[in-house]
Amino acid sequence: MAKHSTICAGIDTGKRKLDVAIEGRGEQLQVKNTAEGHEALLTWLRQHRVKRIGIEASGGYEQPVVAELRRKGFVVVVFQPAQVRGYAKFHLQRAKNDKIDAALIAACTAAVRKIHAAPDPRLLPFAEQLTMIDQIGEDIARLKNRIESCRNVAINQLWRKDITRLEQRERAALKALVASLREHPDLAKRLALINSVDGIGLPTAVAILVRLPEIGRITREQAVALAGLAPYDDDSGDQVGVRHIEGGRKRLRRALYTASLAASFRWNPQLIQLYQRLTAAGKEHKRALVACARKMLIFANTVVARGTAVVRRTAGRITFCFLVRPGRASSSRPTAPHDVARSVRQGWPSLARTSHGLLPGHALTDASTASSWQAQTSHSNGCYETESARCA
């Protein structure tokens, strides 16, 4: 039986040009990084029956050609620059220029064993809008720092006007981004699920959805690693080093870390307990916050994976959280309050502040007392299955 192999190509991306090479062959091509150049590249790749293409991330200059290649049905692998240089060092290759890099990327592409699914193309423009919002926030922080060190009243007034203008633009941009996301039913559903977790406000939910499109389809370990919140070992021989986080998606990690500060002090009972337990054990403040941010992301990943919104309901002085699963008839009533702590120990996440976390079109009425709460939840409407977990 003849052995079939996938023909792979590598592209070294520049601001103005693309250098292309085919793995194991001498054919090379150089085209402009424009729409006309992309058409010439597609024709050349089809002539050589290339199926898989590797390209190195290069400050966003690779995004138009990657989008065009994926639209035309090619399998595209986007490498981090460190991956390509690490492969070159492994093969003791020190020479470096655009043509050599293209051949090196082609060899990396042929060596890849696991091809990840392409990200949702709808999220790319949303990511650019979210980056703009983040940059506006950075500009506001920069101006506030200048005000603190400036003693000129006129200059301070000018900068305060700039801060007000930027804050208005930031709010308007976030509102427009959320409205655009909610135009897509599947994205709106995931956004509501993420937002249902205590401590995850709407800006953080948007950051998770856009920066981590894999949410709900990967394991908890993969999720925290992609966010750069996974604690890595640093051991060698008899030395036991301190665990530390490294890598990951910087803007996503920053959003989660910022949200964990408020969540672990006020909004999420489980994170409050986690923070207090870690600090009591001698952990530093920042290390404890990183652990809380990691746990918060795990909650969000679990909620999206289950497809369940978690809603908080108050009965007297006892607060309950329970998962709501649309489309299933309820065959059981919530457990008694003294059984709820057991549900927490079994891993039910702490959940949302109000019923806004429910899926569109589903709602439950609040119960003001324990008896009325039990009466309402004991009569099934044929649409929900409720499972309770104590939040406070």
Describe the structure.
- The chain has 392 residues and is of the alpha+beta class.
- Helices cover 51% and strands 13% of the residues.
- It contains 14 helices and 10 strands.
- Strands 3-2-1-4-5 form a 5-stranded mixed sheet.
- A hairpin with a 5-residue loop joins strand 2 (17-22) and strand 3 (28-32).
- Helix 10 packs across helix 12 (285-306).
- It is globular.
Q: In percent, how much strand structure appears in the residues?
A: 5-15%
Q: Shape from CA axes? A: globular
Low-confidence stretches: 313-392
Question: In whole angstroms, how far apart are the ends?
Answer: 66 Å
* Helix-strand string: EEEHEHEHHHHHHHEEHHHEEHHE
Let me know the largest β-sheet: 5 strands, mixed
As a whole number of angstroms, the C-alpha radius of gyration is 26 Å
Summing up helix and strand content along with how strands pair, one would put the structural category as: alpha+beta
| Side-by-side strand order of the widest sheet | 3-2-1-4-5
Give a count of the beta strands, DSSP E runs of length 2 or more.
10
Oligomer: single chain
Number of helices: 14
Into which percent range does the helicity of residues fall? 40-55%
